[in-house]
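Sequence, please.
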């Protein structure tokens, strides 16, 4: 088995066996990392890296939004949908205009969501 294949297998097992609270925390952290990478790419003029980082952050937020269960907590879900939509709008604006300011707004919201989640989950 190649090293790359073994590493992918390890990551899969790690994610599948991790508590859901840790998976969500990792997603928020990765999204923030992607936003930071996109911001650095804008600063350096690396269009490909900017697009790749924003695309990955966008996909994470779309998955977080899709995972919401409106029946479990309708008011909370509605608020999270609004926040995720705001983040997605800012990611799109940053990508379309190669602008860092919308990334800062997106990172602020994702950071607050992560902190709130960590507090609620006791992480």
């Amino acid at each position: 088995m190649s090293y790359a294949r073994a590493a992918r297998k390890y990551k899969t097992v790690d994610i599948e066996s991790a508590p859901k609270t840790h998976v969500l925390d990792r997603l928020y952290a990765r999204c923030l990392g992607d936003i930071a990478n996109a911001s650095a790419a804008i600063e350096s003029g690396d269009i490909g890296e900017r697009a790749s980082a924003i695309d990955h952050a966008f996909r994470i937020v779309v998955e977080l939004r899709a995972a919401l269960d409106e029946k479990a907590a309708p008011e909370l879900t509605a608020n999270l949908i609004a926040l995720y939509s705001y983040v997605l709008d800012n990611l799109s604006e940053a990508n379309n205009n190669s602008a860092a300011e919308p990334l800062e707004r997106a990172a602020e919201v994702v950071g607050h969501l992560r902190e709130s989640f960590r507090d609620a989950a006791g992480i």
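Helices lie at 3-17, 20-44, 47-66, 74-97, 101-121.
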